[in-house]
């Protein structure tokens, strides 16, 4: 038997103004689209903006449903928009922000497990890692250099 430690590294930014300029504007797009999320049940609004290699910015927000599991997270709304409008164009950077109508969200909000799995498929298919920047409504921003930093031991098509 052998115990193996897997490690992940993150970069922490204190505020939006510390981010590289291009990422600041990506985060501002995510904040803008967050406000029109359809989240009447959770009152938890998530917005995201993706920068593609061709310079296009694709945005998305969460879309809930009275039949709760029929709703969808912002990240998957955006990645499917990106892949259907621009199939095969690599995703370079993702900005994510979340806000609650019930309380102030000041911790960085990471993408859920299902979104990590979905996004990893696209990262694995392209030649670049995807930089992911995520935050709450205010406060610090966490950056990971790759989807796989958020999803160690990922399941992918090589197992099929
Ligand atoms: N949500 C997202 O949009 N992205 C995530 O990664 C986590 C959760 C949404 C789903 C639901 O509409 C609300 O946040 C509460 O879970």
TrEMBL record:
Transmembrane segments: none annotated. GO terms for molecular function: cytidine deaminase activity; identical protein binding; zinc ion binding. Residues 21-158 form the CMP/dCMP-type deaminase domain. The keyword Signal does not apply. Keywords: Hydrolase, Metal-binding, Zinc. GO terms for biological process: nucleobase-containing small molecule metabolic process; pyrimidine-containing compound metabolic process. Pfam families: dCMP_cyt_deam_1 (PF00383). It comes from the Bacteria. One of its GO terms (cellular component) is cytosol. Belongs to the cytidine and deoxycytidylate deaminase family. This is Cytidine deaminase. It comes from Urechidicola croceus.
């Amino acid at each position: 038997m052998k115990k193996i430690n897997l490690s992940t590294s993150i970069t922490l930014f204190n505020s939006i103004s510390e981010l590289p300029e291009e990422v600041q504007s990506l985060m501002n797009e995510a904040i803008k689209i967050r406000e029109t999320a359809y989240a009447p049940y959770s009152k938890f609004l998530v917005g995201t903006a993706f920068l593609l290699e061709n310079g296009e910015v694709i945005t998305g927000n969460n879309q809930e449903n009275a039949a709760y599991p029929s709703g969808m997270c912002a990240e998957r709304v955006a990645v499917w928009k990106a892949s259907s409008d621009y199939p095969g164009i690599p995703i370079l950077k993702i900005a994510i922000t979340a806000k609650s109508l019930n309380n102030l969200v000041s911790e960085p909000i990471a993408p859920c497990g299902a979104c990590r799995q979905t996004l990893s498929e696209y990262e694995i298919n392209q030649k670049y890692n995807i930089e992911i920047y995520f935050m709450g409504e205010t406060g610090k921003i966490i950056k990971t250099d790759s989807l796989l930093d958020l999803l160690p031991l990922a399941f992918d098509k090589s197992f099929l």
